[in-house]
Design brief:
By secondary structure, the chain is α+β, with helices and mostly antiparallel strands. The protein has 2 domains: 33 residues; 177 residues, Umud Fragment, subunit A, CATH 2.10.109. The chain is built from 3 helices and 12 strands. Strands 1, 2, 3, 4, 9, 10, 11 and 12 form an 8-stranded antiparallel β-sheet that branches. Strands 7-6-5-8 form a 4-stranded antiparallel β-sheet, with no helix packed on it. The longest helix has 32 residues. The radius of gyration is 21 Å and the shape is elongated.
Length: 225
């Protein structure tokens, strides 16, 4: 009689365990193929993204349409932004991996920045009006943090084929492609290291909002056409 009474309880626990495993597997599949969650650890992308934000990142947007100038992207910075010896990535520490997977902490190899230069572009700071130019044409950058200059340091960079030049929106607080000129990779991130595009702020709830994508624009050329 005692064995008969205990059987349903064992079956119930097995069901809960299998349901949990299935839920984790489905979540992992969704996050690997379609949507993922990332934690914003710093103020480098203010005002659009603030430190502490959790964002939903689409892994599929750039499969049907290529990246374009002005896009905010989440990318793997190993070998460019992150130290070259960080090859173990976020899985190097088990507890850290779990909190990163849950979107509770950031990764030391994953970054969020805005594309300023595409393959073949020449990015220069700055013109007589203090604006960054791409292929000789000044950029209109309404997304820059209020009070910040486009850049306080001068630079000139030619973006190689298959690479991207990336800057943060809060320029005075952002370590980005400007900081890595002369470093391995020169701060130029391979296009194939782009993970996806932030599409939604999901936490905190008072900041729940869509992350806008800039409208498509024609190429910036030397003659402006």
């Amino acid at each position: 009689m005692d064995q008969t009474k205990r059987q349903p309880r064992k079956t119930g626990w097995r069901f809960v365990f299998l349901a949990l495993v299935l839920a984790i597997a489905v979540s992992g599949l969704v996050r690997a193929l379609w949507l993922d969650v990332y934690f914003i650890p710093s103020a480098s992308m203010e005002p659009v993204l603030e430190g502490g934000d959790r964002i939903l990142v689409s892994r599929t947007d750039f499969r049907s349409e290529p990246v374009r100038r002005g896009d905010i992207v989440v990318f793997d910075g190993r070998g460019t932004f992150a130290p070259l010896n960080s090859g173990k990535g976020p899985l190097a520490d088990g507890a850290s991996a779990i909190t990163q997977w849950l979107g509770l902490t950031g990764s030391d190899t994953t970054y969020v920045k805005r594309i300023i230069g595409l393959p073949g572009d020449t990015v220069v700071c700055c013109d007589a009006d203090g604006k960054i130019t791409v292929n000789g044409q000044p950029l209109d950058e309404p997304y820059i943090f209020p009070g910040d200059a486009p850049s306080t340091g001068k630079f000139s960079a030619e973006v190689p084929d298959g690479r991207l030049w990336l800057l943060g929106d809060h320029r005075s607080l952002s370590a980005d492609s400007r900081s890595l000129l002369g470093a391995p990779g020169g701060g130029m991130v391979p296009v194939d290291r782009v993970i996806g595009r932030p599409v939604q702020i999901i936490w905190p709830l008072d900041r729940f909002a869509e992350v806008p994508r800039p409208p498509a624009a024609g190429p910036l050329t030397e003659n402006g056409q």
